[in-house]
Design a protein that fits this description.
Layout (H helix, E strand, L loop, with lengths): L1 E3 L5 E6 L9 E6 L8 H10 L1 H14 L7 E5 L7 E6 L10 H18 L4 E4 L11 H16 L8 E6 L2 H12 L2
Parallel strand pairs: 2-7, 3-5, 3-6, 6-7
Antiparallel strand pairs: 1-2, 4-5
The structure holds ligand AR6.
The site of ligand AR6 has 25 residues, from strand 3 and helix 1.
């Protein structure tokens, strides 16, 4: 499923493994410590190789932790991309702790890193809806609306944003959210 905006920007949804889809930048669902975890983070480090971890170590030494709602950029190592943007999503704790603002901020942080690097094609996972427990039906509209809003701005370098959704339930939730755009 996809949505073409009047300015020619494209938002696409595909089901699959984000580490295998070529893009200029691949976004990761990381943690504040920027240390390799499970889920998509584990897959990105396995497929990308040690160069990513090495760069994260230097970023952590220089800047400390990466707070929820923000993101840092590294090389993509062996992944089919130029960059990985490591975004830290909110841990879901009921919805009353600004989780939706923090989640939206994650996607905007990745898009800002993309614009700084003139990235045209960026891929996103469904941040926070795995280990961090954010309910899919609540997270999908936040993710889709935030990225859609960014794509309507003509001065973004991003021409195509792709949500790469791991399983069918996730893809369906994002399709419902995209249908409302
Ligand atoms: N491609 C696309 N999506 C994937 C892939 C993949 N290869 N692997 C998993 N997903 P999660 P979070 C989906 O748990 O909830 C880590 O330990 C997965 O099915 O990876 O933000 C970090 O270090 C789900 O839909 O990320 C943090 O500590 C989505 O990606 C913590 O987990 C996100 O699931 C972050 O938790």
């Amino acid at each position: 499923m996809q949505h073409l905006f009047p300015n020619g920007r494209l938002l696409r949804l595909v089901q699959g493994d984000i580490t295998t889809l070529p893009a200029d930048a691949i976004c990761n669902a990381a943690n504040s410590a920027l240390r390799p975890g499970g889920g998509i983070d584990g897959s990105i480090h396995r497929a990308g190789g040690p160069a990513i971890l090495h760069e994260l170590d230097s970023i952590r030494k220089k800047n400390g932790a990466c707070p929820p709602g923000s993101a840092v950029a590294t090389t993509a190592g062996n992944l089919p991309a130029r960059y990985v943007f490591h975004a830290v999503g909110p841990v879901y704790s009921g919805g009353g702790n600004s989780e939706s603002q923090v989640l939206a901020s994650c996607y905007r942080a990745c898009l800002a890193l993309a614009d700084e690097r003139k990235v045209q094609r960026i891929s996103f996972p469904s941040i926070s809806t795995g280990i961090y427990g954010y309910p899919l039906e609540e997270a999908a509209p936040v993710a889709i609306e935030t990225v859609a809003e960014w794509l309507t701005e003509n001065d973004t370098s991003v021409k195509e944003a792709i949500f790469v959704l791991f399983d069918e339930a996730t893809r369906r939730a994002y399709e419902r959210a995209l249908a409302d755009v």
